[in-house]
Design brief:
The protein is of the alpha+beta class and about 300 residues long. It has helices at about 15-30, 70-90, 95-105, 110-120, 145-160, 165-175, 210-250, 250-255, 260-275, 280-290, 295-310; strands spanning about 5-10, 10-15, 35, 40, 45, 50-55, 60-65, 90-95, 125, 175-180, 180-185, 185-190, 200. It folds into 3 domains: about 5-135, 3-Layer(aba) Sandwich (Endonuclease, Chain A); about 140-180, no CATH class; about 225-310. The protein contains 11 helices and 13 strands. Strand 1 (about 5-10) and strand 2 form a beta hairpin.
């Protein structure tokens, strides 16, 4: 499952473009912050919020959680933050895209520009489920209360005739274990398709990588390549449509003054939005020039096409 664009910013491994945008905003205004400092037990589950703020004496005074626009995820986060406020008497805040847009009204650049900078950076990738220190739950241990709840839940599943129990039994069967320590299916040694490390696996397994880390790296590369390929195709289509529309509306384009650009190109923008779900003039400018040069340069390009009769 994709979890946004993740990468290192300063010494922290941020897990989404929204987290980067918020950290960038804080740094712009020289607001001290820290990241994933503490773990809280909420309803028997471990919860690690994103941003931590301390007063001059080093006392924690506020916690901020960054979430996507997913309604369900935001509701869960709000309940957890409310529990922290009640338990620890600490102020909390939930920030998503709308709140970030409001914050960025104070900035000399747009929120989307900062997010695109993060996405286009060579230091970021599409974030998958991570192992090791990059996983937010790395090194965390269940409390005795959590262990008890997990044990009771598992026991209830085994005592039921639920679909979950059938899946558990099927998982044991596929793993080759009819009971703990009793191997039924023969194993064999294989070499990882990515790193060539040796690993042991059942002969019937379709597994070709030694670990989730290796399979994750391959998945990230495939997903990134597919995204870039799709983006490049759409950009080429948009550029071709800009040229087509320009040639079909020569008189209008040539007669347009540079202070009336928006009204002239609005029909073209609306059609691009309908066809390709792109409405940002900066993106459309980028499809034509390779970089964003603004709407004036775009109109100059269109006028030049009309004058030279080139398509």
């Amino acid at each position: 499952m994709n979890r946004g664009y993740a990468g290192f910013y300063k010494e922290y491994y941020l897990r989404s473009s929204y987290e980067y945008a918020y950290a960038f905003y804080l740094d712009y205004f020289s607001v001290p912050w820290s990241y994933e400092d503490q773990v809280f037990e909420i309803d028997g589950k471990s919860y690690k919020p994103d941003f931590f703020f301390y007063d001059q004496n080093g006392k924690l005074e506020k916690i901020v959680e960054i979430k996507s626009r997913n309604k369900e995820a935001k509701e869960k986060a709000e309940k957890r933050l409310l529990a922290i406020e009640k338990q620890c008497k600490i102020r909390t805040e939930l920030i998503s895209y709308e709140e970030l847009k409001t914050l960025y009204k104070e900035m000399p650049f747009s929120l989307n520009a900062v997010i695109n900078k993060w996405i286009d950076s060579e230091k970021t990738t599409i974030n998958k489920a991570m192992e090791g220190i990059l996983n937010p739950h790395f090194g965390l241990k269940h409390t005795e209360e959590s262990k008890k709840l997990i044990g009771e839940h598992t026991q209830n599943l085994w005592n039921s005739n639920s679909v979950a129990k059938k899946r558990m039994i099927e998982g044991l069967r596929k793993s080759g274990l009819s009971q703990k320590g009793k191997i039924k299916t023969p194993r064999e040694a294989r070499h990882c398709m990515l790193c060539s490390n040796k690993y042991i696996v059942m002969k019937t397994s379709t597994r070709i990588y030694c670990s989730r880390e290796c399979s994750g790296k391959v998945a990230i590369k495939l997903a990134s390549d597919a995204y870039v390929k799709k983006r490049d195709f759409i950009h080429a289509e948009i550029r071709n449509y800009v040229i087509q529309w320009t040639m079909e509306n020569k008189e209008l384009v040539l007669a347009t003054p540079f202070n009336k650009i928006n009204s002239t190109i609005k029909p073209m923008m609306d059609e691009i939005h309908r066809r390709y779900n792109v409405k940002d003039i900066r993106v459309i400018s980028k499809t034509v020039f390779g970089v964003d040069r603004g709407r004036k340069e775009l109109l100059k390009f269109m006028k030049k096409l009309c004058s030279e009769n080139v398509c």
